[in-house]
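Deliverable D2.4 — example input (structure tokens):
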């Protein structure tokens, strides 16, 4: 009888050990999965954005997005970024995405609002580009050379005036970080605020790779019929586009100055339908001028290795507090890292790992109780 009970007790013990071993194995496998900072450092960009968008509300990810603050990781500024509003020449900036739509770049100045073309082409001061109806905002840049958000607003100005400067919210980091890492960081700041990753696609052919015929063809097919005359009416812009300088024979009023003829020769050509004032010549000159600027973009503004498509780019307009997230250092990007255990208990979150731990402890307790009960029963049997 004693051997029988001992065998039964061993079977129970072996079963519990197997259960505990399986739980430990599953927990070890879960721990082996890369942490949020692991995803940040090693994932290809599009994969990281997809992962972050799907897991932004996960407790571990929430910890990553919040525990860079000094009260958690013990360091005041290890994760903090500096953001300053500065003017940067458009030619010194490069895209961090591998496609910029022709439609998104040219539709406003060429088609919908030709006044913008006049404003941009004639700009002598830094331009703060429009970000919506009746609203202007700086674009977002990194290290004074990489466009993070606002690619089409940058390319629009660039295509109209390669000599212009654009107003930027320029980000700098306290630690080593490349342009793709900065994209990941801004996406993390957006995810922290909205709980996901908003996406937007580019339309039309890619301005960064389109050929001369394609760009000029788009301009010719979409040009606002008022644009050539408006260019001709602006001495500064017509000088750039047509290569003709205004000659002022006598003092004129401000109103007269806005419609001053470019030159006596030009005026004569215009009346004959042969010079820059004619619609055909004007349209051709504008297309040539814009294409010349687009070629400068294509030659000088090369995206970095691993640059993503438009769909995966940060949309900071959806998260107005992204600046505070970065300047406060909320995202735990740099050592010292916060201990995540405190984050879980403080937020009262029960993770899969914590649940397994609870089950393991309960099984251990149950095994001890069974052993104690079995021992008691065996002792009773031995004394009978």
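Example output (designed residues):
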């Amino acid at each position: 009888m004693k051997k029988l009970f001992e065998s039964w007790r061993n079977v129970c013990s072996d079963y519990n050990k197997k259960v505990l071993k399986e739980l430990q194995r599953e927990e070890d496998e879960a721990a082996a999965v890369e942490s949020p900072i692991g995803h940040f450092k090693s994932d290809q960009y599009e994969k990281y954005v997809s992962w972050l968008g799907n897991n932004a509300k996960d407790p571990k990810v929430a910890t990553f997005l919040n525990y860079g603050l000094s009260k958690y990781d013990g360091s005041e500024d290890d994760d903090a970024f500096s953001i300053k509003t500065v003017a940067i020449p458009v030619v010194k900036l490069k895209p961090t995405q591998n496609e910029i739509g022709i439609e998104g770049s040219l539709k406003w100045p060429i088609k919908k609002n030709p006044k913008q073309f006049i404003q941009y082409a004639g700009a002598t001061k830094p331009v703060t580009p429009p970000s919506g109806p009746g609203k202007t905002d700086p674009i977002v840049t990194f290290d004074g050379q990489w466009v993070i958000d606002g690619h089409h607003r940058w390319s629009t100005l660039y295509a109209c005036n390669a000599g212009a400067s654009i107003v930027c919210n320029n980000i700098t980091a306290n630690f080593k970080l490349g342009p793709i890492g900065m994209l990941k960081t801004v996406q993390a700041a957006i995810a922290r605020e909205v709980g996901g990753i908003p996406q937007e696609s580019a339309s039309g052919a890619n301005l960064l790779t389109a050929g001369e015929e394609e760009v000029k063809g788009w301009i010719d097919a979409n040009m606002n019929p008022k644009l050539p005359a408006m260019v001709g009416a602006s001495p500064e812009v017509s000088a750039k586009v047509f290569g003709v300088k205004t000659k002022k024979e006598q003092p004129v009023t401000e109103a007269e100055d806005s419609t001053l003829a470019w030159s006596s020769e030009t005026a004569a050509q215009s009346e004959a339908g042969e010079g820059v004032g004619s619609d055909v010549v004007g349209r051709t000159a504008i297309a040539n001028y814009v294409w010349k600027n687009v070629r400068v973009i294509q030659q000088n503004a090369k995206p970095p290795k691993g640059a993503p498509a438009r769909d995966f780019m940060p949309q900071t307009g959806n998260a107005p507090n992204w600046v505070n997230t970065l300047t406060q250092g909320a995202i735990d990007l740099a050592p010292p890292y916060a201990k995540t255990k405190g984050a879980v208990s403080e937020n009262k979150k029960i993770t899969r790992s914590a649940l397994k731990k609870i089950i393991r402890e309960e099984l251990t307790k149950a095994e001890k109780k069974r052993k104690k009960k079995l021992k008691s029963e065996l002792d009773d049997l031995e004394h009978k």
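The mean pLDDT is 83.
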